[in-house]
Amino acid sequence: MGTTQLESVPEPKYWHLKTVLSQALDSEFSVGEILPNERDLAARFGVARATLRQALEQLELEGRLQRRRGVGTTVAPPRMGVSLGTGPHTWPGGPDDAWKPVDCTTAVPPAAVAEALETGRDEPVHIVRRSRVSHGRPVAAELLYVPQFSVPELSGIDAPSGAARARAVLRELQRPALERQENAVELGSAGADDAKELDRLPGAPVLVVTTRFVAAGRTAALSVATYRADTCRLTFGDAGGVEIHTGPQRKAS
């Protein structure tokens, strides 16, 4: 049987333009700055507007640019690193936690969550909703499921609802000794609720990080955090938690 070789394919013009534009973003523009309009950019680089649009769309997919209705195309902040490391583990809501408590309800969790928490399928748990913002834009949303046995001293009188209730749950969660936490990561697509909270269209790519917090030999809390895939990248190292990378690292995940 004969063999064939693929012929060398020249780099598409829009791809080369994307590289040139990326270099210009690093040297000439700052985060949040609005780019010139398409006509001026096309004239500057000597390309057709169709070629320019392809390059801009690719840079948007890679998280370099952000298109905002009524504003224009702006330079996006650096990607946020979701660090999956082996460093010291901490409960959510600690002093260095960058998540912002939004709300807290008590309800029966999804069946998969109830199974992970080893609670009864009809047993309500505390559901803390938190958000993460970077450079003024939402980048992640979290649902933290906390069984009632993990916060036995929680009082409904001091903080009956809302963000105050969420902070109270997080405060009580600090009491048990945390044995370990386990992370799992998968790619997904934004549902209607997540898309609205993350300012994305339904179906947009997201990174889902599920974290199981273990104390006294059982799951004491379960976090399901949804990150915008265009703003985040996975990092692996010794540090735990989530780091904000403000340097010039711009590679796509």
UniProtKB/TrEMBL annotation:
Gene3D superfamilies documented for this protein: Chorismate lyase-like, Winged helix-like DNA-binding domain superfamily/Winged helix DNA-binding domain
Keywords: DNA-binding, Transcription, Transcription regulation
Residue intervals of the HTH gntR-type domain: 11-78
Matching Pfam families: GntR, UTRA
UniProt keyword annotation of DNA-binding present: yes
Matches recorded under PANTHER family: GNTR-FAMILY TRANSCRIPTIONAL REGULATOR (PTHR44846:SF17), MANNOSYL-D-GLYCERATE TRANSPORT/METABOLISM SYSTEM REPRESSOR MNGR-RELATED (PTHR44846)
Descriptive protein name: GntR family transcriptional regulator
Organism: Streptomyces dubilierae
